[in-house]
């Protein structure tokens, strides 16, 4: 390995530079494509994997790192040559046989095996998890390294090809377009591709014994994987899915992917899971009474806000959760429930009785998923709607999703676009709603 000064990765080679989670993600390169070949045994929870990662160096690299939790790494190749490697916490450190020039494309090939486990931390267990009969992946925000080596930062979006081989009684769903399925003896191999740029935390694998259910999605194909015992209540709970999709497309613009897939596990889940082109619900979210329909709306809205438009840094999380929460209020208003204004009044009153110690534009890593980020984020949008008027407000949202489709976004980009829509500065408005802890008064509408 060369020791020339300009051949060393710069500061942050093993950090993404994220303001909240710098230890997840790595510097020195950008990933273009992941090709994952996985062989999974459900009973022993045993995963054998091969990851071929195509990336481009953003600086000269004599070494690099990937994020990977657990597993025994058997072999690492860089551009077909054996590379030295070692482990340090969540990092797989790799030293290529030859330095990689800045601007050069290179391929890292990692062979690994083990029992996948979630990544532990402040959000409990995140990532690959066993079900009673099967498995699921819930990676937001740091769980992707629980099943494949990666550059685990939302801003490094890449394309994917994922091949999964498992026992034939099981259905495999991956966030992507199904390409092929082939059976050999007692196993079946499933191949999916995800062409759109996708963050690592939004890639998911779902394995279980499911029935395939076609959803009436209108112009957007929608389908579901549901345990047989839940098909009847599911048909009620998701019976308005075509109308929900139609409503969100009208408000937010074209749906950003080829299809939408709903998975309902046979186990209960604390919360639904968002993934690229997919949402995952627990059996407890299906009761035949549409009790949790707002959650179905919320997760679908994430396909625009979070998945197509992905935060460039985790401090901008309100751009995901505030928008998805406001989608719930819009659907309520559209479907004959309470108006968005009624929801806004309720939540403004609720938040006003609580502590005023959170800045929505920068809530801090421990409060990324605080309910106030969701609700005050939605209140910010409702107040902006009152400021702009419906026509300009919804035109802004459609411009937002179109302009940054399949890209990464920041709060500043949204506020700048809002000012263009308003035709005037909105510094005071956004400072009050996003940057100050005190809750502003809710404008009358």
3D architecture notes:
The chain is α+β, with helices and mostly antiparallel strands and 445 residues long. It folds into 3 domains: 5-117 and 141-196, Sandwich (Immunoglobulin-like), CATH 2.60.40; 211-303, Zincin-like, CATH 3.30.2010.30; 311-435, Neutral Protease Domain 2 (Neutral Protease, domain 2), CATH 1.10.390.10. 25% of the residues lie in helices and 30% in strands. The protein contains 9 helices and 22 strands. It has an 8-stranded mixed β-sheet, with no helix packed on it. It has a 5-stranded mixed β-sheet with strand order 16-17-18-20-19, covered by helices on one side. Strands 3-7-6 form a 3-stranded antiparallel β-sheet, with no helix packed on it. A hairpin with a 2-residue loop joins strand 6 (84-88) and strand 7 (91-95). Helix 3 (293-301) crosses helix 4 and helix 4 crosses helix 5 (340-352). It is globular. The termini are far apart. Mean pLDDT is 95; it is low at 1-12.
Q: Which class do the helix and strand fractions yield?
A: alpha+beta
Residue windows where pLDDT falls under 50 for at least 5 positions: 1-12
CATH topology annotation of the largest domain: Immunoglobulin-like
Tell me the major beta sheet: 8 strands, mixed
Instruction: State the shape.
Output: globular
Strand tally: 22
CATH class of the largest domain: Mainly Beta
Strand line-up in the sheet with most strands? 5-4-8-2-1-11-14-13
CATH architecture of the largest domain: Sandwich
**Percent range for β-strand residues:** 25-35%
- Mean pLDDT comes to 95
Q: For the terminal residues, how far apart are their CA atoms?
A: 66 Å
The CATH superfamily of the largest domain is: tricorn interacting facor f3 domain
- Total domains: 3
Determine Rg (CA atoms, Å): 22 Å
- Percentage of helical residues? 10-25%
Counting DSSP H or I runs of 4 or more residues, the number of helices is 9
């Amino acid at each position: 390995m060369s020791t020339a000064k300009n051949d060393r990765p710069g500061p942050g080679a093993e950090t993404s530079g994220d303001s909240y989670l710098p230890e997840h993600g790595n510097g020195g390169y950008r990933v273009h494509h992941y090709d994952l070949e996985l062989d999974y045994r459900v009973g022993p929870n045993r995963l054998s994997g091969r990851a071929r990662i195509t990336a481009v160096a953003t600086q000269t690299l004599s070494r690099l790192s990937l994020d990977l939790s657990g597993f025994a790494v058997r072999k690492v190749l860089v551009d077909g040559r054996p590379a030295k490697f070692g482990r340090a916490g969540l990092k797989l450190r790799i030293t290529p046989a030859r330095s990689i020039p800045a601007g050069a494309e290179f391929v890292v090939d990692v062979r690994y095996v083990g029992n996948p486990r979630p990544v532990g931390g402040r959000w409990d267990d995140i990532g690959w998890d066993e079900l009673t009969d099967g498995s699921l992946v819930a990676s937001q925000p740091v769980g992707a390294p629980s099943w494949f080596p990666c550059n685990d930062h939302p801003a490094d979006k890449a394309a994917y090809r994922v091949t999964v081989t498992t026992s034939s009684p099981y259905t495999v769903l991956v966030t992507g377009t199904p390409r092929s399925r082939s059976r050999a003896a007692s196993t079946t191999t499933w191949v999916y591709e995800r062409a759109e740029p996708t963050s690592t935390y939004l890639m998911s694998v779902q394995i279980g014994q499911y029935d395939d259910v076609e959803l009436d999605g209108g112009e957007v194909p929608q389908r579901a994987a549901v345990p047989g015992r839940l098909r009847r209540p599911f048909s009620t709970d998701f019976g308005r899915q075509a109308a929900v999709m139609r409503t969100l497309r009208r408000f937010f613009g074209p749906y950003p992917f080829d299809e939408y897939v709903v998975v309902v596990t046979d186990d209960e889940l604390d919360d639904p899971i968002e993934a690229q082109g997919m949402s995952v619900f627990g059996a407890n979210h299906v009761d035949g009474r549409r009790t949790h329909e707002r959650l179905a709306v919320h997760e679908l809205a994430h396909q625009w806000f979070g998945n197509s438009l992905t935060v460039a840094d985790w401090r901008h999380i309100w751009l995901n959760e505030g928008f998805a929460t406001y989608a719930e209020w819009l659907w309520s208003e559209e479907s004959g429930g309470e108006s968005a204004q009624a929801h806004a009044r309720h939540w403004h009153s609720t938040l006003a009785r609580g502590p005023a110690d959170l800045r929505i534009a920068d809530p801090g890593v421990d409060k990324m998923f605080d309910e106030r980020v969701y609700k005050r984020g939605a209140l910010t949008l409702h107040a902006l709607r009152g400021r702009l008027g419906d026509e300009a407000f919804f035109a802004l949202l459609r411009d937002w999703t179109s302009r940054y489709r399949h890209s990464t976004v920041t709060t500043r980009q949204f506020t700048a676009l809002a000012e263009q829509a308003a035709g005037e500065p909105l510094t005071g408005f956004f400072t009050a709603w996003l940057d100050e802890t005190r809750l502003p008064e809710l404008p009358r509408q």
